[in-house]
Predict the 3D structure of the following.
Amino acid sequence: MKEEEELETDLDKWLYNLKNMSKLTKMPASFKDGIFQEVFELAELNKMSDIDRAIYDSNVKSVSDYENTIRFAVKKAAIKAKKEGIAQEKAKGKIREMKNKIRTAKNLKHRGFSAIQIFEITDLSVSEIKKLS
């Protein structure tokens, strides 16, 4: 069997791992990537006492709950911002529409249209039309 320094392929690492897992106290440096790190983390979890495992599981749950709370808050804030953005765009649209109606009413008034005719075209009230210069 190869020594740790002689391991070249993933197969070599797997065989070394299976043979020596019970003797290893720390993960070999050449095993720091991908699946081998996950195997060692699982082995560490499996050798915990029941009390340590319960504490670990509680901590994992707390972290997960915290992350889910943050994700929910971000999602809720994004929805609120989108609704506010839509409301602002609607308000801006109504302002633009009103400005266009006033501009049209002024032009029509300067061309001699009556307040009633301007009302029929723009839907502005007759009193609003009379106030225009």
